[in-house]
Amino acid sequence: xxxxxxxxxxxxxxxxxxxxxxxxxxxxxxxxxxxxxxxxxxxxxxxxxxxxxxxxxxxxxxxxxxxxxxxxxxxxxxxxxxxxxxxxxxxxxxxxxxxxxxxxxxxxxxxxxxxx
Amino acid sequence: xxxxxxxxxxxxxxxxxxxxxxxxxxxxxxxxxxxxxxxxxxxxxxxxxxxxxxxxxxxxxxxxxxxxxxxxxxxxxxxxxxxxxxxxxxxxxxxxxxxxxxxxxxxxxxxxxxxx
Lengths: 116, 116
Prior knowledge:
4% helix, 9 strands, globular, eight-stranded mixed sheet, homodimer
């Protein structure tokens, strides 16, 4: 058993909006992702959506506002709430999702689940 | 809806081994804690135990070894596994636990649940 070093994991890939699974916790995947630009509007009917910014800055647009996030800041999008993640410059983020959750809220358009 | 700034939350208290609830995610509490010294050996029969070090360094002793953690490192103690968190100097940590989990694994000795 050993620690999961998030910076080391992030150094192994460059693609944006392609989360990598780095661990598990209570039936959830722990994922790191590099974000830049605008993602798609989506929602998850069955799960909250956890974001912790590790470096850089991002925003999470909601239909009735926007949440700005910097390093060391968490936002949990409640289940069923439409949102659109956006980052002007690259940011690195920890995500937590129930195992198998499609990142777009839709299995047909979701990024493949990759474990590193 | 707004971001949870972990450093701001940590600045509101000084006690060690007294987690504060700062948010919720899928039936779990998100907690910040300041650790220093040696906690107690314990286990959680029904939940994994999530640690993400935000600043400083800590160790998690296991019966068959030890896991060293620095900033940006995660360790998940599998449910049922005995462990003893230790920090030589103060470290700040994000914890994730099912709502109501006693931090010592035993309701009789657990820290009170405090929300900030």
